[in-house]
Amino acid sequence: MSALDDSIRVEVKTEYIEQQSSPEEQKYLFSYTITIINLGEQAVKLETRHWIITDANGKISEVQGAGVVGETPTIPPNTAYQYTSGTVLDTPLGIMYGTYGMVSESGEHFKATIKPFRLALPGLLH
């Protein structure tokens, strides 16, 4: 881990999208809004994403690719980038976590950690 790893903070808010879900078909749609905050002293570019998504049945899905929502944003120092995306689970409960592949203005490649967060129907867990 380098100091750059600690310069990125990732915040997550999730929401269950009831109108696009179909519990009788085991289809539960969740949106997640990610805020990536650059606390460092140089701009960083988000180049890749790697997600690991696990539903309540233990089914694991991996998602890897370039950027997020079709973008590879550059985040200047002391600013944030926010986007919203979504995922469909077979169960009303799941967990997501992963990493963003980043590169600093000076060319150093590093990973920003996305800590595990829960996807759950409202009222499912207390």
Automatic annotation (TrEMBL):
| Start and end residues of each ApaG domain | 2-126
Q: Per the UniProt entry, what species is this protein from, by scientific name?
A: Shewanella decolorationis
Q: What NCBIfam families would the database entry show?
A: PRK05461.1
The protein in question is named Protein ApaG
On the tree of life, the source organism's domain of life is Bacteria
Q: Which residues cross the membrane?
A: none
Concerning InterPro entries, the annotation shows:
ApaG_domain, ApaG_sf, Uncharacterised_ApaG
A Gene Ontology biological process term: error-free translesion synthesis
Q: Which HAMAP family does this one have? A: ApaG
